[in-house]
């Protein structure tokens, strides 16, 4: 019996198959509608003050972008995704002569870059994109600052570290399925944490933790949070909650504050082994013995024995914590997430003291750094960071299972 279909039927079926969507054309800079304007600031230029600058970039369509200040020499760098500058001259930009030089062109696959050399130290006071008619416009406003207030990224290479990936991240695998992760959004309640630019650390990390929980649960991970609203939870209780949940990993989330220019970029903290003895003694004094080690009743044991048993537990958990930190920093580096100059550090933070649960504290960035704060409030950046964390946790979980298999044999 023949299964061949009539030609007319085949042609009809082919017409029902949707044509592939055409690739989106690269955005174009509309030079005639763009400008660089300079305004007097302070007492005016004649008094030694550089002008306030505003760069407006009119585009044929809205695109993801990023604006940063780098030093040595001082430059404004604006990175734009899928934007074509071919055939355009910087001399045609109105106000181009207000600064020493302007350059633009293709930068890396999928991205173009505008470099504006500045006449002195500046800071970005605002950066925004209007996406509606008559055409999308990116507006970056800069104001001059004193030398001691100048806090740029150290180089264009440092600016590259935060450049968003040119394509979406691949879907995460389900290697973390069956894992239990406790997320600990820092601060809360009467303790808002660091504050800057109208934002509080407590609110930022709580929102991020909820986004991360959703992504992890979609991969089959059991997620518990030490707080789900603006409430205060004692540091010791956070560890107890993780232990009660049977956590395989405890991750504390923060966005701290340091004096301007001292720190920027993500940082991962793990327990500092040099502080083990002191921490063990403090835990033995301040906690119920049954709360120190899962499955081990230390009630009635003396402080010396409790300390020895906790140190013994850390010989297993400490390398696992450090291994997670390495997984996370490698994923962040691969995906262009900006890292602190020393991305993995040791610390004696209370939430890292648990001897029986691999633990890490992630500073997503420093809220006092304008660039980091812009990232923390940017949904696209947070989504990328969430995906990176899911990948890191999945990779770490896979490595943990492999390690356990080898130990059993």
UniProtKB/TrEMBL annotation:
- Ranges where the MurNAc-LAA domain occurs: 239-394
GO BP, sorted A to Z:
peptidoglycan catabolic process
Name of the protein: N-acetylmuramoyl-L-alanine amidase
Give the SMART domains listed for this entry. Answer: Ami_3
* Keyword set, alphabetical order: Hydrolase, Signal
PANTHER family in UniProt: N-ACETYLMURAMOYL-L-ALANINE AMIDASE, N-ACETYLMURAMOYL-L-ALANINE AMIDASE AMIC
Q: Which Pfam families match?
A: Amidase_3 (PF01520), AMIN (PF11741)
EC number(s) on file: 3.5.1.28
Indicate the secretion signal residues: 1-23
Name the Gene Ontology molecular function terms of this record: N-acetylmuramoyl-L-alanine amidase activity
């Amino acid at each position: 019996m023949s299964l061949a279909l009539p030609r007319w039927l085949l042609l009809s079926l082919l017409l029902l198959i949707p044509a592939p969507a055409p690739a989106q054309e690269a955005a174009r800079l509309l030079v005639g509608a763009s400008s660089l304007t300079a305004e007097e600031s302070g007492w005016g230029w004649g008094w030694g003050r550089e002008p306030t600058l505003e760069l407006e970039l009119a585009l044929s369509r809205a695109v993801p972008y990023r604006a940063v200040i780098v030093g040595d020499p001082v430059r404004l760098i604006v990175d734009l995704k899928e934007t074509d500058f071919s055939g355009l001259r910087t001399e045609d930009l109105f106000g181009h002569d207000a600064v020493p030089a302007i350059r633009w062109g293709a930068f890396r696959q999928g991205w173009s870059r505008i470099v504006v050399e500045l006449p002195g130290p500046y800071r970005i006071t605002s950066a925004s994109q209007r996406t509606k008619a008559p055409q999308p416009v990116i507006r970056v406003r800069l104001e001059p600052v004193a030398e001691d207030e100048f806090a740029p990224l150290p180089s264009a290479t440092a600016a590259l570290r935060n450049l968003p990936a040119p394509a979406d991240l691949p879907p995460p695998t389900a290697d973390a399925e069956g894992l239990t992760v406790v997320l600990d959004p820092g601060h809360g309640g009467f303790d808002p944490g660091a504050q800057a630019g109208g934002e509080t650390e407590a609110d930022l990390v709580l929102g991020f933790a909820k986004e991360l929980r959703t992504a992890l649960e979609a991969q089959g991970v059991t997620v518990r949070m030490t707080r789900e609203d603006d409430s205060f939870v004692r540091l010791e209780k956070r560890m107890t909650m993780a232990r009660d949940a049977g956590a395989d990993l405890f991750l504390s989330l923060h966005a701290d504050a340091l004096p301007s220019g001292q720190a920027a970029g993500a940082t991962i903290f793990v327990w500092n082994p040099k502080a083990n003895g002191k921490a063990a003694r403090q835990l033995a004094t301040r906690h119920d013995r049954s709360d120190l080690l899962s499955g081990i009743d230390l009630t009635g044991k003396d402080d010396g024995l409790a300390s020895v048993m906790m140190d013994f537990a850390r010989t297993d958990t400490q390398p696992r914590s450090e291994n997670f930190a390495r997984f996370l920093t490698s994923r962040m580096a691969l995906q262009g997430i900006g890292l602190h100059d020393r991305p993995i550090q040791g610390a004696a933070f209370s939430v890292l003291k648990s001897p029986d649960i691999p633990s890490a504290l992630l500073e997503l960035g420093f809220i006092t750094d304008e660039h980091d704060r812009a990232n923390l409030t940017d949904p696209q950046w947070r989504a990328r960071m969430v995906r990176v964390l899911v990948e890191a946790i999945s990779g770490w979980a896979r490595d943990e299972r492999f390690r356990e298999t080898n130990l059993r044999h």
